[in-house]
Amino acid sequence: DAGITQSPRHKVTETGTPVTLRCHQTENHRYMYWYRQDPGHGLRLIHYSYGVKDTDKGEVSDGYSVSRSKTEDFLLTLESATSSQTSVYFCAISEGVNEQFFGPGTRLTVL
Amino acid sequence: DAKTTQPTSMDCAEGRAANLPCNHSTISGNEYVYWYRQIHSQGPQYIIHGLKNNETNEMASLIITEDRKSSTLILPHATLRDTAVYYCIVRGYNNAGNMLTFGGGTRLMVKP
C-alpha cells in the first residue's frame, strides 16, 4: 500500500471552530488531493496541489483552504467549521498522470 | 472530462464473473477510462485504466468498445471481498492537476 496517513482519523468539533486535517505521504509524489465524501455520494474534489506551495481549487472549495510547505504534507483547513462540512475527508496522491492512491480517510463531525 | 453512466447496483454469485458496464458516449480521443472501487468506508482503490485497447492486470480486465463509447470491467472470479462500489471515470490525459471526477458508481454485491 502507498504510504499515506491522515490525521486525525476521527474528530468531533463545534460550529465556528477552526479545524486542520493533515495528510502525510512517504512516496515523494508530486500531486496531492483533498476530497470529501457525503453519504450516498461519490468523492468530490476540494483542493489539490501540484508541488510545494502550488495549489488550486477543486469542485467544492468554498470554506476550505490548503497549504503545502513540504512535499510530504498537505494540510486542509476549515477556518470556521459549519455543519455542512460534516463529512468523510480523503487525501490522495499521484505522480503525474498515473493512478491516484488514497488514504484511509478522516471522519469529521461538526455539531 | 466526459460524463459516465453506470447502473446503480448489481449482484453477482461468488465464483462467477462480474461484468460491470459503463457508458461514456461523449468521450474524446485523448481521454482515458479509469476504474476504481471503494470497499465499505475505505479510501478508493485503483483497479485498471485504458485508452483504446483492452487491458488486463492481476485484478481485472477492461474491455473498451471499438467506438470507445462504452466499456466493461470484468472481475473473472468474484469473491465476497469484491463487494464494493465501483466507479468508472473518464479523464483527459492533459487534465490539469490529474483530477478525477467521481460519479455515483455501481454497488456490486457478491453473494455466496
Plain-language structure description:
The complex is a heterodimer of chains A (111) and B (112). With 111 residues, chain A is an all-beta fold. Chain A is 0% helix and 57% strand. Chain A is built from no helices and eleven strands. Chain B has 112 residues and is mainly β. In chain B, 0% of the residues lie in helices and 46% in strands. Chain B has no helices and nine strands. Chain B has strands at residues 9-13, 18-23, 31-38, 45-50, 55-56, 61-64, 70-75, 84-92, 106-111. The radius of gyration of chain B is 13 Å and the shape is globular. The model of chain B has no long low-confidence stretch (mean pLDDT 91).
Give the secondary structure arrangement, pairings included.
The complex is a heterodimer of chains A (111) and B (112).
Chain A: E1 4-7, E2 10-13, E3 19-25, E4 31-37, E5 43-51, E6 54-57, E7 64-70, E8 73-78, E9 87-94, E10 101-102, E11 106-110
Parallel strand pairs in A: 2-11
Antiparallel strand pairs in A: 1-3, 3-8, 4-5, 4-9, 5-6, 7-8, 9-10, 9-11
Chain B: E1 9-13, E2 18-23, E3 31-38, E4 45-50, E5 55-56, E6 61-64, E7 70-75, E8 84-92, E9 106-111
